[in-house]
Design brief:
By secondary structure, the chain is an alpha+beta fold. The chain is built from 7 helices and 11 strands.
């Protein structure tokens, strides 16, 4: 793998400009392999004001350590820079964040300098298209303290497209939710500003419709962060947070949040309040 060291976080405006260009039919990437680049950024310092706004918009506490999901926001410009590079097999714009797994080795102090490494791996076919894992690791010195695998789906025909749909899992849904969350366009505009994720499907009604959504939708990683509000203060220091995204949350919305104790961890879910289908299912172990 070729290591490319960045001197500063990528400009999110430049990255999104490239994303729009790569999404055009003539220009869009369609390669059969993954770039072997590893993007690195060293010595990053957390902006306390950005962190404070992130915790507010996600309903989390502001403290001396980073929320479990916050390094995703810090790494997002680097992830996007990799996904808009010429060697990436599909356009970043319009791709779907299907799953996300975060492994935290220990809590990260707000004051610690962070080193990031981002690369892509494990391109494979799916019934709905092509999946790629984008892997991010965060180090403090020589110690890896946080690692994430974000799985992105590009919807297209593959050799698996004719396979039947898997039978939906019959989950035991508690009769009463742990809490309810209200999310509207204002909330998601605030999240877009603090996270840098201004994908049109989240911030533009016309943009959402262009990609097949009737309305703007909430960010999956806003949902993943907001779901943690039910178990704050009870998350182990060393933990794996595995999230599967279901049907998108169309804005505005009220969703039910469920948190069920499982051994030393938790099962979490965000569900539609009436139809009960999942917007997100997750485990903390």
């Amino acid at each position: 793998m070729a290591e490319i060291e960045l001197s500063s976080p990528p400009s999110i405006l430049d990255v999104y400009g490239r994303a729009v260009v790569s999404a055009l039919p003539v220009v869009g990437a369609s390669g059969g392999s993954l770039p072997d680049d590893v993007l690195t950024l060293r010595g990053y310092r957390v902006d306390a004001d950005n962190l404070a706004e992130y915790t507010k918009v996600c309903g989390l506490r502001f403290g001396d350590t980073l929320p479990l999901t916050y390094p995703f926001v810090l790494a997002f410009p680097i992830v996007m820079k990799l996904m808009v590079s010429k060697g990436f097999p599909f356009a970043a714009m319009g791709s779907v964040h299907a799953e996300n797994t975060i492994e935290q080795v220990r809590p990260i102090s707000v004051t610690e300098p962070l080193d990031f490494r981002v690369h892509a791996e494990n391109m494979r076919e799916h019934r709905k298209g092509i999946l790629v894992d984008v892997v991010t690791s965060v180090n403090v010195g020589r110690e890896t303290v946080w690692r994430q695998t974000s799985t992105f789906l590009n919807q297209q025909r593959t050799s698996l497209s004719g396979q039947p749909k898997p039978e939906p899992e019959q989950a035991d849904v508690p009769p009463v939710p742990t809490s309810t969350l209200r999310v509207d366009r204002k909330t998601i505009d605030r999240y877009a500003a603090v996270s840098g994720d201004r994908n049109p499907i989240h911030v533009s009604t016309l943009g959402a419709r262009a990609f097949g959504f009737p309305k703007t939708i909430a960010h999956g990683m806003w949902s993943a962060a907001a779901a943690l509000s039910a178990v704050e203060g009870r998350i182990p220091d060393a933990v794996t947070y595995s999230v599967r995204f279901g049907k998108p949350v169309l804005l505005p919305a009220t969703v039910n949040l469920y948190a069920t104790r499982e051994g030393t961890g938790w099962d979490l879910a965000l569900r539609h309040p009436k139809k009960l289908y999942p917007h997100l299912t997750a485990t903390l172990r």
